[in-house]
Amino acid sequence: MAYYSQQNRKKLTVGADGNALMNLIAILLMVFIIFAFIEVVYTFTFAKEGSARYHAEVFPYMAMPADFRTLLSRPWTFLTHPFLHDGVLPMLSAALWLWAFGYIYQDLTGYRKLIPLFLYGSYAGAIAFLLIENLIPSLHAGAGNLMLLGAGNGVMAIAVATAVLAPNFRIFPMIRGGIPLWVLTVIYAIIDLATIPYTAPGLHAARIAAAAMGFVFQTQASRDHDWSAPLNGAWDWLTNLFNPDAPGKRARKDELYYKATVPPYRKQGNYTQQRVDEILDKINQKGFKSLTEEEKEILKRASSDGNI
């Protein structure tokens, strides 16, 4: 896919309803600000020991530990670790790369695939990280002090998926017609992997697994196998639980009652002389009380018409 119609593009704005990219970046920034504030409080409270105590008492309850037994005591960290960053530079780097690739991916696919892809990449990387650090004996010995955190795995999945979706999409068109997107993806992958310590192969495995997830996710999407549908369906169901205007909920219709001073219209059929005679015979046999309301009405009309 070398290019796509400019007319079919949806301009992404900060205030756009359902803008998944902006929502995701906002969540990352919000979590970062909250924990940065907690660290500042620790620093003012405990002075020189503040940062160390923060990383010992607070930080481990959001970052995912490499040791599986420790993870069992804090299982929620498997879900929370992609949203935690330790320092301004890691947070800024993650946000910028997420914006660079996420903007293009969301512009091409819409709002509903970006966040599921980010989560799939993050958790695929987490699984690979746990397997490498716990199944290789030489690595397991040092797994006790190693933790996984940050949006890097999710961003890697988005970067690879975007390159698979539109490898020849060009950025910076003023530079000799533009730089192909796949080149930017390769540059990002090299920079990202180079910043990971060589002594932590589990972190490298996490990035590779996230990249593989991005590749498979987009390859399946091109075959009309939407892996984002289960997460989107679960989210829609959850958000619609308490939404009275949600599709599928039956709204109660108001019942209106009117007070009238005249009796309602009643359709009256024609009567025959034979019918009148039958009613008179019934009176002779069973009495007037045996007549129905309809028969009484017929007699009344026949009397007023002079037919009795």
TrEMBL record:
Molecular functions (GO terms): serine-type endopeptidase activity
The Peptidase S54 rhomboid domain, residue ranges: 74-217
Keywords associated with the record: Hydrolase, Membrane, Protease, Transmembrane, Transmembrane helix
BP terms from Gene Ontology: proteolysis
Pfam families per the UniProt record, alphabetical: DUF6576, Rhomboid
Broad class of the protein's primary localization: membrane
Gene Ontology terms: cellular component: membrane
Transmembrane segments: 21-44, 87-105, 117-136, 148-169, 181-200
Annotated membrane topology: Multi-pass membrane protein
Annotated ranges, domain DUF6576: 265-303
InterPro entries recorded: DUF6576, Peptidase_S54_rhomboid_dom, Rhomboid-like_sf
Compartments reported by the entry: Membrane
Protein name: Rhomboid family intramembrane serine protease
Organism: Flaviaesturariibacter flavus
